[in-house]
Each structure stands twice: as structure tokens, then as C-alpha cells.
UniProtKB/TrEMBL annotation:
GO BP, one annotated term: cysteine biosynthetic process from serine
PANTHER family referenced in this protein's UniProt entry, alphabetically: CYSTATHIONINE BETA-SYNTHASE
Species for this entry: Fraxinus pennsylvanica
Positions of transmembrane segments: 6-24
Keywords, ordered alphabetically: Membrane, Pyridoxal phosphate, Transferase, Transmembrane, Transmembrane helix
Keyword DNA damage (UniProt): no
EC number: 2.5.1.47
Protein name, UniProt field: cysteine synthase
Stated family: Belongs to the cysteine synthase/cystathionine beta-synthase family.
Length: 416
């Protein structure tokens, strides 16, 4: 009879396993539905954006005594957190008829938002025209071109300059709208586009389109809403309400504002922090209430305001998106800390992260040091290192600026 008892035990075990499996799948499905109801009406590429995993960064957690969790946004189809923003901006523009199917989306971007727009725009039947600074990693423009976007590289200047990449992108949208209007009036003579400042290739793209829409990621609050309605709720569900702090750097400000506002509404005791790279004025804005130094007034720089190897974060003006952030404090990060952190995480966790992700992890350790052991901290892993090879992961480039990594552990952050 022993074999019968053993078989009965196996049957019972399998039955319990099946019940538990069904329960977990149902719970997972319910959680996914709550955090992303909009996904139900989507298909194709867009349906794969969001609901990224929240992973424990083992080395940093063990070193600090805190649970340091990273939202793995590099797993989005376009490779970064900006996929969320691109979808939200385009969907809202189509709904409001600011953008027509077949139209061109223009944007001034240091890379990630541009790549995300170029990735998702075809899913909505649109084209993409991107204006980027000519000092960003060359692989970003190569990726954009491979995605079919029109890429216009301009020299880096202050936002107050008419030829700042954001201002150029705004003009391109206006040009596209003027050209589309002339097409509607049956004036298809190529001379009609004379007088525009864009080159012949750009004129050709604009000429063929059905109007333009300037994404305006810095000031368009669709950026904020992408994270307030998507990323923030996902984090809250994933930590099951057990969260002490959130920290991230800011470029446009959409990520840090959308997530911080949502989390604060869920639990006002959650601490939200900014980590700011060199050359940015946001640290001063958060900690002192002003964004200027003795040498300059806020927003009046006429040269490139950044002095950092990190890309896509740091700014010297207050955007409409950042104004909505609910922050308890800020930390200043350095280039060498970001470089050392990226190599440390690659060696100890197998995480191959971009510069802004590395800076966010620097911020997570700073928060852990400030709060002490036993706390749960979340940050954003914005993108991976694949689009940072020629600068952030280039030994010769780093050596030129005295940024060659040499740490064996976390001593660069005071941990041994």
C-alpha cells in the first residue's frame, strides 16, 4: 500500500501546485490590469511598452543594508524609459488632432527621446524628424538613421539661442505645417519651400509630409502624465506599498515629477530626491530655491551650459514638467562617480547601464547613506550602455578628461 500512499501524496501536491499557480497567474493578471488598463486597447509594438520589472540591485543592497531596486526601463522596445513619453505625446497629439496620421513629429533631443519617437512613430503612421547636438555619442544618430528618422545635428548652444536644438526642432514643425498648408492649396511648386533654413534633404521630408507636430518633451505635460499614470502606479504595485524613498536625475523633469507626485499621493511619508550631474542648476533650485550662481543669472547662459559626460540629464532652466515634482531634497553627483558606478555594476551585477542610469544608482546609494540601513529605495535604470560606447564606455575618451575608472569597490562613495 505504500506506493498508493506515495501516489496519493503526489496527486495532492500536484493539485495544490496547480491551485497556487492559478492563484498567482490570476493575481498577476489582475495587478497588470490595474496598472495598465490602456494596454488592453493596444496591439503591436506599443503594447510591449511599460510594465517593466523592478529588480533588486544586489551589490548595492548588500553594501548599504537597504533594498535598492531599479526599474528596468532599458527593457522597453526602444531601449529606454522615453518609450513611455513618446507613446503618450503621440497619442495625445493624435487625439487632439494636433498631429495628423502621416504627419511628421519633430523633436530636439540629446538622444533617448529621439530614438523612442523614431521607434514608435511608424506604429501610428507618422514620420520623425530629430534635431540633436553634435556632441552626443555618434551611435545615437546612427541608430536614429537606421530607424528611418531624419537626423539634423547642430552645435550645442544655450536654450536662449535661436539655433539651440530644441528651437530648431520647433521651427521644423512650423515649416512642415506651412508646407502642408500650401499643398492643400494645390501649390506643389518646389520653389514654395524656398526661404526655409533647413537643407534640401530636410525640405524634401517636410514637403512630403501632412503637417508637423513639435513634441516639446521639456514643456509638454504629456511627459509628466506618462509617468504619473504609468511608471508611478507600476512601482507602487511592484513594491506593494512598501517604499521609503525614490531618487532620480532630471532632464526634462517628466520622470521625477510624475513618479514623485504619484508616490506622494499614495503615501506622503515617502521621500523623493533628485540626483543632479555637474553643470546643472537643479540641485541649487531644490536645495536653495534659486538656479543661479554668482557668475550668472538663471536662464541667461549663452554658451553650452553643461560640463558633464552624462547625457540626457541636467538642465539650467525650470521646465513645466519639473515644476510638478514633489521633492524632499537633492544630491550632487560627479562624472567620476557615474563612471565608477557603471563599471562596478557591470562587474558585480552584470548590469550594463548608460550614464544617466549610473548617476541614478549613485543617487540611490546617497539616499541609502542618508536614511541608514533597513529602507527600501527605488530608482530608474533609464537605458543600457549600448548607445554610450563612443564616450561613456570609451577608455580613450575618458582618459582625455581624467575620468579613467580605478575603483575596486564602492570606495568612491565612501563605502568599503
Amino acid at each position: 500500500m505504500a506506493p498508493v500512499r506515495a501516489a496519493g501524496t503526489v496527486v495532492i501536491a500536484l493539485s495544490i501546485g496547480a491551485i497556487l499557480s492559478y492563484f498567482l497567474r490570476s493575481r498577476s493578471k489582475s495587478s497588470s490590469t490595474k496598472t495598465s488598463n490602456r494596454q488592453n486597447s493596444r496591439n503591436g509594438l506599443v503594447a510591449a511598452i511599460g510594465n517593466t520589472p523592478l529588480i533588486r540591485i544586489n551589490s548595492l543592497s548588500d553594501a548599504t543594508g537597504c533594498e535598492i531596486l531599479g526599474k528596468a526601463e532599458f527593457l522597453n522596445p526602444g531601449g529606454s524609459v522615453k518609450d513611455r513619453v513618446a507613446v503618450k505625446i503621440i497619442e495625445e497629439a493624435l487625439e487632439s488632432e494636433s498631429l495628423a496620421p502621416g504627419g511628421v513629429v519633430t523633436e530636439g533631443s540629446a538622444g533617448s527621446t529621439a530614438i523612442s519617437l523614431a521607434t514608435v512613430a511608424p506604429a501610428y503612421g507618422c514620420k520623425c524628424h530629430v534635431v540633436i547636438p553634435d556632441d552626443v555619442a555618434i551611435e545615437k544618430s546612427q541608430i536614429l538613421e537606421a530607424l528611418g528618422a531624419t537626423v539634423e545635428r547642430v552645435r550645442p548652444v544655450s536654450i536662449t539661442h535661436r539655433d539651440h536644438y530644441v528651437n530648431v526642432a520647433r521651427r521644423r514643425a512650423l515649416e512642415a505645417n506651412e508646407i502642408a498648408s500650401k499643398h492643400q492649396n494645390n501649390t506643389k511648386d518646389g520653389s514654395q519651400i524656398n526661404g526655409y533654413t533647413s537643407d534640401k534633404e530636410t525640405q524634401s521630408i517636410l514637403y512630403e509630409c501632412k503637417g508637423g507636430f513639435f513634441a516639446d518633451q521639456f514643456e509638454n505635460l504629456a511627459n509628466f502624465r506618462a509617468h504619473y499614470e504609468g511608471t508611478g502606479p507600476e512601482i507602487w504595485e511592484q513594491v506593494r506599498g512598501n517604499l521609503d524613498a525614490f531618487v532620480a536625475a532630471a532632464g526634462t523633469g517628466g520622470t521625477v515629477s510624475g513618479i514623485s507626485k504619484f508616490l506622494k499621493e499614495k503615501n506622503s511619508s515617502i521621500k523623493c530626491f533628485l540626483i543632479d550631474p555637474p553643470g546643472s542648476g537643479l540641485f541649487n533650485k531644490v536645495t536653495r530655491g534659486v538656479m543661479y550662481t554668482r557668475e550668472e543669472a538663471e536662464g541667461q547662459r549663452l554658451k553650452n551650459p553643461f560640463d558633464t559626460i552624462t547625457e540626457g540629464i541636467g538642465i539650467n532652466r525650470l521646465t513645466e514638467n519639473f515644476k510638478l515634482a514633489e521633492l524632499d531634497g537633492a544630491f550632487r553627483g560627479t562624472d567620476i562617480e557615474a563612471v565608477e558606478m557603471s563599471r562596478y555594476l557591470l562587474k558585480n551585477d552584470g548590469l550594463f547601464l548608460g550614464s544617466s542610469s549610473a548617476m541614478n544608482c549613485v543617487g540611490a546609494v546617497r539616499v541609502a547613506q542618508a536614511l541608514g540601513p533597513g529602507h527600501t529605495i527605488v530608482t530608474i535604470l533609464c537605458d543600457n550602455g549600448m548607445r554610450h560606447l563612443t564616450k561613456f564606455y570609451n577608455a580613450q575618451y575618458l582618459s582625455r578628461y581624467g575620468l579613467t575608472p580605478s575603483a575596486t569597490g564602492l570606495e568612491f562613495l565612501g563605502l568599503h
